[in-house]
Each structure stands twice: as structure tokens, then as C-alpha cells.
Amino acid sequence: MAQRLALQRLLSLTPRGPLTSYGRAIGTSAGRRSTFNVQDGSDFQDRVVNSPKPIVVDFHAQWCGPCKILGPRLEKMVAKQEGKVLMAKVDIDDHTDLAIEYEVSAVPTVLAMKNGDVVDKFVGIKDEDQLEAFLKKLIGA
Fold this sequence. Notes:
The chain is an alpha/beta fold. Helix 4 (65-80) packs across helix 6. The chain has six helices and seven strands; from the N terminus they run αββαβαβαβαββα.
């Protein structure tokens, strides 16, 4: 009886349903669906290089002040595109190999990729108008 009560309490505290996966909540906003963190080289290959959609790749670092300004601004602008473009976030401290491969010498560096090829790039902070123009050029709008 005591074991059953303990199990019921545990189950009542455990999140269940479609919004959880392995104990972590999955965001459902458009911004969260269009933005993802790159996990490793093969994840980058699968989700960025092989993507059928245009991709914005944000090379950043936790210690980078300008990255903390640009990142949310860029995520917001990508979310406004309603799925026409995706955003991959790459922490250069965790993925030095990717930073070297894509010749990232300063952060933030943002690449625009289509069909696995880099088609545009910028380094540093941009305002919302500049980001919108960058995204429209990538999408072809």
C-alpha cells in the first residue's frame, strides 16, 4: 500500500503528454520550431548542410557580449519568416571544428546557407532592418 501511494505521488509529479520528451519541455512557439542548437558535426551535416530550406547559421560564444545582443534579435527575425528559413546556433567553444571549417575568426559570425553552400555572411551586430534584408536576400523574397 505504501509503495502504491509513493508511486502515485511520483507519477503525479512527472510531466507527461505531447510537450515533454525525456523530461525536457519542448517549446511550441514558431521561434522555437525554426531555431535549433547544433549538437555535433553529424547533426550539422544532417540539419544544416542537407536542409531543403535556407539556413541561417549563428556562430556564437557564451562569453561574447555582442552575441547576446544579436542572438535573440536574429531569432525574432527568423521566427517572423514563418518557417521559410531555419536558424542553427553553433557555440564555437563546443564546436571548434565547425568554426575552423567555416573560417569563423570572430563572433558573432552569421552564415546564410542554401543547398549546403554558404551564399552570404556577416560578422558583428546588425540592426533589425539589416537582418530583414539579409533574410529576404536568402529566401529570395
